[in-house]
Amino acid sequence: MQGNREKVKIIEILNQVTIMTELTIRKTLPSDTGQIIEFTRNTFPWGDYVPNAINEWISEGTAYVAVIKNHVVGVMNMVLIRETSTAWLEGIRVHPSYRRMGIGRALTEYVLNEAVKNGIRHVMLMIADWNEPSHRLARSLGFHEVLTLFTGVAKPSPVSIVRGEAMREVIRNALRKTNGYYCMTRKHWLCTRATEDFVMTIINEVYIGRGIGLGEFSVGPPTMPAKTEVLATENGDFENYYGRFIVYEKELNQAQAKA
């Protein structure tokens, strides 16, 4: 029995080596859409957001795929926030038949190198707290935790609204509490390093209540005057709670870019 198990293990290793030598990573093409939707539609019990987002990612030129013999086996999107020299990684998915073979790592390493070539200094991503394999991968690639977020549709709460230049001090105080990180939900769930000037270009009012609401990002418990999808640094009054997520960051070494 021991000998049979060893033979199976050797075969698995050889298959993995063969697969990785055949792996190609490139920008996503419109013709890849069908394959991507097919293996991402049921990623989670509730489905997945990738099938609804992939066409937009392709049109923006921000998505990458891992391909083996013309079969798409992995996908990832990278948003560049040049104002803050930050890249946001999202939607990394690997075909179920090709998981635990190093494809997710290879895809992430490729995209990290693309970020370096674009002069980006920091890369960030978000992982659901229950997804331990993704946490292990992120940590093994040099990412470290910088924020914990509670996500969902928040109930309205009593707030004071601040507009105009008076927002600046509120934003400054909020960023001090987050160590300079800001998140948003409008187009993507996205977090970045930020300055008060950057946040001032994104939102036109802030909310002061149980926490500080900077658009859809609440520093403290969810703080919004209307029912809204929110990312918050503390748990609170959600009408529909999605879950707890960990935000990671990695600092890039510009000298390590590969051709």
Automatic annotation (TrEMBL):
PANTHER family: L-2,4-DIAMINOBUTYRIC ACID ACETYLTRANSFERASE, N-ACETYLTRANSFERASE. It comes from Vulcanisaeta souniana JCM 11219. CDD domains: NAT_SF (cd04301). GO terms for molecular function: acyltransferase activity, transferring groups other than amino-acyl groups. This is N-acetyltransferase domain-containing protein. Residues 23-168 form the N-acetyltransferase domain. InterPro entries: Acyl_CoA_acyltransferase, GNAT_dom.
